[in-house]
């Protein structure tokens, strides 16, 4: 394959803070060179890197791209994410899947599906 997914990038107000939240979501760490302007999570892992870049403009409206996660102990994981700073937005049971939509500390929505 000549192309691969390298990073998923979040524009944000504070890169270090948002990277810390997402590192907690993934039970990982923020990479060593993170700061308020630029931070990454999982840069050396065999998976896409989460990259956080400080931008001057605020987020407007719902993000058009979001992260979907799945958990076998769904309720416990949702509670853990809320404890990290996520906010519950909505809950759905459609298309044969049960999931909850959450928002990270900067308001970016993401989903956690119940995985059996």
Précis, in short:
This protein has 116 residues and is an alpha/beta fold. It has helices at residues 15-25, 74-84, and strands at 7-12, 38-41, 49-54, 67-71, 87-94, 97-103, 109-114.
Task: Describe this structure as you would to a colleague.
Helices cover about 20% and strands about 35% of the residues. The radius of gyration is 14 Å and the shape is globular. The N and C termini lie far apart (about 30 Å). The mean pLDDT is about 90. The chain folds into two domains: about 1-55, 2,3-Dihydroxybiphenyl 1,2-Dioxygenase, domain 1, CATH 3.10.180.10; about 65-115, Signal recognition particle alu RNA binding heterodimer, srp9/1, CATH 3.30.720.110. The protein is of the alpha/beta class. A hairpin with a 2-residue loop joins strand 5 and strand 6 (about 95-105). It has helices at about 15-25, 75-85; strands at about 5-10, 40, 50-55, 65-70, 85-95, 95-105, 110-115.
Topology overview:
Blueprint: E1 7-12, H1 15-25, E2 38-41, E3 49-54, E4 67-71, H2 74-84, E5 87-94, E6 97-103, E7 109-114
Parallel strand pairs: 1-3, 4-7
Antiparallel strand pairs: 2-3, 5-6, 6-7
Strand content: 35-45%
Report mean pLDDT, rounded to a whole number.
91
Rg, Cα atoms, Å: 14 Å
User: Span from first to last CA?
Assistant: 31 Å
CATH class annotation of the largest domain: Alpha Beta
Quickly give the structural class. Answer: alpha/beta
What's the overall geometry?
A: globular
The residue ranges in which pLDDT falls below 50 over 5 or more consecutive positions are none
The H-and-E topology, N to C, reads as EHEEEHEEE
Our count of domains comes out at 2
Give the quaternary arrangement of the chains: single chain
Widest sheet: strand ordering: 4-7-6-5
Pfam family, one: Glyoxalase_6
Protein name: VOC family protein
């Amino acid at each position: 394959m000549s192309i691969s997914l390298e990073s998923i990038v979040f524009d944000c107000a504070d890169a270090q803070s948002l990277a810390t939240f997402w590192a907690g979501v993934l039970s990982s760490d923020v990479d060593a060179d993170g700061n308020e302007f630029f931070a990454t999570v999982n840069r050396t892992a065999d998976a896409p890197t989460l990259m956080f870049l400080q931008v001057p403009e605020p987020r407007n409206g719902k993000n058009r791209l979001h992260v979907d996660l799945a958990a076998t102990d769904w309720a416990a994981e949702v509670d853990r994410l809320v404890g990290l700073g996520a906010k519950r937005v909505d809950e759905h049971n459609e298309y044969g899947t049960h999931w909850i939509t959450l928002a990270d500390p900067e308001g970016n929505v993401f989903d956690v599906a119940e995985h059996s």
